[in-house]
Amino acid sequence: MSGSGKQRAPQDKARPDEPGPAEGLIEQRETFIQTFFKKGAELTEELLREDSRLRNRLRDLEAENAALRAQVASEDAIRDLLSKIRDLEREKKELLSRMHDVQASSSHYNQRFAEIEAENAQLASLYVASHQLHSTLDLRSIVRQLKELLAQFVGARAFAVYLVEDGAGELVPICSEGVNASSLKRMPVDRNHVLGRAIESGAAEWVEGDATAGTIEAPAATIPMLLHGRAIGVIAVFATFEQKPSFIDVDFELFKLLGAHAASALVASRLFAEHGVKVGPIDTFLDLE
What we know:
Helices cover 57% and strands 14% of the residues. By secondary structure, it is α+β, with helices and mostly antiparallel strands. α1 runs antiparallel to α2, α1 packs parallel to α4 and α2 packs antiparallel against α4. The N terminus is likely disordered.
């Protein structure tokens, strides 16, 4: 090679795998863009997830709110119902109090009505008894009426009627029912015997409690027959029917009536049998006032 020729310094040639300045910027830009969009996408996804979570939470809150509203409405309804129940309970107590007052008044009126009915029945019985005893002057008819009264009104199943024999001081049985007549004897008027005690005291006696199991020796009731305060005889009720287990208040009043009216009816019938229908002198009826 000739020596005159100048040799050039070899120039560095660019490597094909190394980017140039322009290519490096583009690559950085693309990397930035990709990173930006990736971050944006991730952020968007995160926002979408948060939106979905918030929407779900909103639905839950709306459901809870609806439930709370329903509960409040229900509690209001319950409070209204409880208030109405209290009002109804108060009204119920007032009505019960009034009902008790009405029942008490009704019970009082019913009791009084029953007492009046009993009094009316008693008056009716007394009227019928007195009317029947004085409806005739025939001794047999009076005795028959007396038997019927003792059986129907007093409930006597076994009884006897005794009269005091003047002078002898003895009780003589004149009629009986429900017992053997032969078992009835004359007896002296003795205070130690129940019949004699009735004659002496002039007061009726009766057993307390069971009146169905009396006997001739121990009658269930003894009723003196009084005429102007004097005992002319006695009715002895030995025993009552099973339907009449004991005596009641109306029987005691009937005893008094039977004792008084039976005595006057028997005496009147005996006087009529002895003397007949004799009015007597008119003078005996004058100046009676």
